[in-house]
Amino acid sequence: MKQINIRKISLIILAFLSLVSIVFLVSVFTGQPSLTVTTTNPVNNTVDVPQTSNIDIVFSRNLTQSDQQKISVVFSPQIDTTSEFSGNQLVLAPKTSLEKGILYNVVINSSGKAIYSFSFETIIFTPEQIREEGAAQTVNDKIYGDAFTKFIQGSPWYLSIPVEKDDYEIVYNFDKKSFRIQLKVAIPSDQLNGVIQNALGDLKAIGVPAPISYYVLDINGNQL
Amino acid sequence: MAILPITKATLQYLSFGYDHFFPEGQPPINLPFSVGDFDWKDRAAFIKDVSDTAVITISPEDPKIVEKVREALKTIAEKPTEEAETANAKAPTKAERERFEAQRQATETAHKKAAEEAAVRSAETKRQQEIYSREIQKLKEAEAAVKNKKIYYRVQKPEVKEAPQVKKLEEEATASPKKFVEDSATLLEKEPVVQNLNQGQKKTFAGQAAINTYDVVTGNSPAVQAAVISGIVSNSEILNKFTVDPGVKSTLTNAANVLIEQKKAQFDLTNLFVDLQKIDGIKGMDSININYSFIPQPGFADFDFGQQVIEPRIESLIQQGLLVGNTPGLTLNEIGSEVTARSNAFFNYRFSNLPAANPSLNYSPEMVRAGLSVLRVTTVPLEAAEGSLIGKLGMGLGLGPVLNLFQEKTGIDFGIKKVTEAVVGKAVGAAGLTATLTPLFAWAGPAAPFLAAVASFIAKSKIGKFVSDTFSKISIFLKKNNLTEFAAALLVATPFGAFFGFPGFFITGGLTFAGLKAANASPSTLANFGSGMSSFFGGVFGGTLETAGMVALVSLLSFPVIVVLILFIINSGAYITPPTLQTFGVQIHCTDSKDPVSFPNTTSNKIAFRAWQITADLYEGFWCYWNRPPSNNPSPNGPARSDFPNDVTLYPPGYPNYFSYEKFKEDPNGNEKDYQDCGSNPCMFWCTSLIQQAYRENGDSALLDTLSAPNMDTDFRNRTGKFIPRASTTYLNVVPGSVIFFGEIGSIYHVGLVYSVDKGGVHFVQANAPTKDDFLPFGDGGIGLESFTGLDIDGIGLP
Fold first, then answer.
1. Rounded distance, CA A137 to CA A143, Å?
2. What whole-number distance in Å separates Cα of residue B752 and Cα of residue B774?
């Protein structure tokens, strides 16, 4: 009796193992193609991702119940998300806003094996900052722009300043309300007047009307 | 211990030795390291120490450093180059060092003072808002006390023969109040009187005028409202009908007085655009008679204190609280922007709450246009950025008391006058800042205060400088005797007074001087005398002999300045320092292609290099400023957009596209205030965006996450050795990649990024501005950056 029982048990085990093997082989040769990730949103290396973004992962095929159970997504740094599968897509919604200015690495695993990884960086500025600081800066930049435009309308020649030549540079000294002709090289005294005339000619050429107020500095910064 | 005396040669060697360790535009080789008492964490700290110190000690405890210095010095010594000669020439002289130190100390003192003032202001703001809360509570109690109590009134006003077009206005206003006001505002915005103002101010002034025109057309003139309220609170018998409680009476009277001034300001302001007298015959409160009745009668309207006085007063207190809380600083621009913002918000609210249309009536915008064209007045255009304009606007919104406070604190003349110094003193004594809650201001005449305030503003901000440049002798005389402002303040008030024969104008002159005196706080005998005089003028006896005599005396003294002022007014557009001249064609223009930066990208500094690229890639966007990145850059959370299909990115990598195409399509040239709500995505590539992008792409993680130029300024100031005040900048301590802060501490407007530096000045690149790059000169000797726009430079932030 005992021998028969052992034989029966052995047969049962053998049959079971065979069945498992057959199922395995059938699944290998006739089952679903392997799962891959085709795209994500944010895409890899995206920067300035809003803090309230969801993470969308699109797979190469529709996900079966089995696939869904095998998939896991690991964030670094870690975040808590809710997940929702739909067709070939997995949407992960962070339970709290993402941190600003953080580089998140995301690894997608299937059955514990990494099948895809990507990273993205969240926006440096919060929506509140963009709304409030940006609004204020818009106004401030406009103030600057208006003032600058008014200035240039009165002094269009300024857009051609500084005048750079081999032997001198001309800038406008706002404190002195006068053009400064800075010599770059030592000029013999008998040639100085000619250089100054050239400089004044340059100023006239860019639209500075006469009389032109100016002063000259030698190479050492001494006024001539 | 080696002691190196500061000589030109030593400086040269140290400078080159330092360059050896801290190569420009590249990461430092050794950071941080200390030498003796010094901690040279960056170039600025090094330069400062060299500049400030007579002797530099090198500690033998750190042989590696000594060895490196030796190596560097040896290299330099063995290979004297032209650069070495240049460096020698660059070494600051003793006089320059002393000047640096004096400037540094002065700047430090100024910053300390500014910080102290900011702390005081913060405390005052808090206290102020507590006062508003208490006042609102009191008003609500008063409202409860007078609930359901009414009196009745009838208005007797002059007869007027209306033009047919004007008569039609009433029909249009009835047909669609909302459209009537909106269309009126649009039309009035184009009137010459506001053409010198910025878009925000135009909109606000026109909005106020449109609403009040509607009020007048529909028989609810602000002048009538003021007259009705005035008649009630000035008659104790009528007031007793509402309450006999002295406390409640006081609350009601105070609220009424503020509202009266508010209505008068609205009336005055609207009359700058349209001749309201042509509509209802009323030229002011004085031309109205009111009959009151305690019982309802035919032809009488009822008056409800709660609805007609207390609730508007509570609204104005809320607006004041918002103004105090939201005003970032105390410059005219900051206060003005907030007043304009508050006003626009309020008008938008008013507009949106007006009935849209009566379906049984036809509305015709053409008739509105025709009616308003009959009413239009020819007025001298208002000058932008005048404190008195802001005052006028604020008064119309009921912000007079808080502007009065700002006026006291800042010296900016908002044209808001107190009745007498004595009364003010009492109010201030009673509750510190109670002056802001107490209706102690009054306009001295229908137009004089406004005009005199404009004059005083001109006098305060511009005339002194102009006088000194043009008529130096007169200026010296006036300044010597502390008369410049006094004279300037009175010179306009006096002719007006003389011309119109209104003693009130003389009062204004005296009061204006008081305001100027407060602004400058310059003690002098004459100033004190003037203050006393203004108190006297401010009282009931403005037309006495003493008053007139003093005005005459001062007028004589100030007569020469009248000539100057006339010249100044003629040339008022030319106060910017460079010579203003024939226009050769302004080179600021709108284009749909990207202009290049005006110099090639040759720097070795990585931040400056990238900033050049980013700037070069910008297109013109809002107001034709360079604030639009290529649309083929990725949007913040997705692929590139194709709003501008011809866009190209010349200098990748692209970056998130900071631009609101939706807003741009709406209005590419709108009022900057319209861009305050772009949602959670940026509207445009701000000047600060360029700094952030260029710094972050080069790994500078120390930069504060901010898009606000003032915050960025504070960030650099807070980091040791990263900020150089303007006066202390030199061609030695400003380096490529530095940030230029335009404006003043606490009110920075704009930033640019230094591309290159030489003894003559700095080239810089910028975003969200009319040009992509520009040049700022140093003063002589390469010291102290100069500003070209009239907007100061606060300083330089080092990378």
1. 10
2. 9
List of long-range contacts for B299-303, beta carbons under 8 Å, 24+ apart: B299/B154, B300/B152, B300/B153, B300/B154, B301/B152, B301/B153, B301/B154, B301/B155, B302/B150, B302/B151, B302/B152, B303/B150, B303/B151, B303/B152, B303/B153, B303/B228, B303/B232
Torsion of CA B128, B130, B131, B132, to 10 degrees: 90
Size of interface A-B (CB pairs under 8 A): 201
Tell whether omega for the bond before B725 is within 30 degrees of 0, i.e. cis.
Answer: no
Tell me if the pTM is above 0.90.
no
Residues in chain B within 8 Å Cβ distance of A154: 573-574, 576, 578, 580-581
In the three-class reduction of DSSP (H, G, I as helix; E, B as strand; rest coil), residue A64 is classed as coil
Note whether A111 and A70 are within 8 A (CB): yes
User: How distant, in Å, are the alpha carbons of A153, A154, B297, B754 from that of B588?
Assistant: 9, 12, 66, 21
Looking at chain A, list the stretches that DSSP marks H as alpha helix, in order from N- to C-terminal side.
2-30, 65-70, 127-154, 189-205
Q: What chain A residue is nearest to B770 in terms of C-alpha separation?
A: A145
Of B307 and B709, more confident: B709
Which parts of chain A have pLDDT scores under 70? 1-4, 23-32
Residue B581 has pLDDT above 50, yes or no: no
* Nearest CB to A151; choose among B576, B587, B675: B576
Q: What is the mean pLDDT of chain B?
A: 68
CATH number listed for the domain at residues B606-797 = 3.90.1720
Chain A CB contacts of B585 below 8 Å: 156
* Chain B closest-CA separation from residue A115 CA (Å): 23
Place of tokens 């600025």: B44
Contact predicate B184/B210, CB 8 Å: yes
Residue B9 pLDDT greater than 70, yes or no: no
Measure CB to CB from residue B777 to each of A53, A171, A223 and give the nearest one: A171
C-alpha distance from A185 to closest chain B C-alpha (Å): 12
3-class state of residue B790 by DSSP: coil
Residue B137: both structure tokens together: 């509570």
List, in order, residues 6 or more apart from B140 with CB less than 8 Å away: B310, B314
Any alpha helices (H) in B176-198, and if so which ranges? 177-188
Classify the C-alpha dihedral B1-B2-B5-B11 as positive or negative: negative
For chain B, give every domain's residue range. Answer: 2-91, 144-356+383-436, 448-574, 606-797
Q: Tell me which residue of A208, A111, A120, A100 sits closest to A162, measured CA to CA.
A: A208
Sign of CA dihedral A178, A182, A188, A194: negative
Say yes or no for a CB contact (<8 Å) between A144 and B638.
Answer: no
Half-sphere exposure of B714 (CA within 13 A, CB side): 12
- Residue from the list B583, B786, B790 with its beta carbon closest to the beta carbon of A173: B786
* Structure token pair of residue B688: 């600060």
CB B263 within 8 A of CB B441: no
B693-717: per-residue pLDDT in tens?
899 888 887 888 899 999 999 999 9
Q: Residue A217's closest CA among A193, A171, A183?
A: A183
* Closest approach of A14 to chain B, Cα-based (Å): 56
- In chain A, residues with a C-beta closer than 8 Å to the C-beta of B655 are 47-48
CA distance B18 to B46: 8
Residue type, A167: D
Q: What is the 3-state secondary structure (H, E, C) of B297-360?
A: CCCCEEEEHHHHHHHHHHHHHHHHHHHHHHCCCCCHHHHHHHHHHHHHHHHHHHHHCCCCCCCC
Contacts of B709 in chain A (CB under 8 A): 137, 140
For the four alpha carbons of A13, A14, A15 and A18, in that order, the dihedral sign comes to positive
Q: Which two tokens stand for residue A86?
A: 């739909």
- What the block records as the tokens of B683 is 């509207």
Count other Cβ atoms within 10 Å, centred on residue B59.
Answer: 15
CB-based contact B385:B200 (threshold 8 Å): no
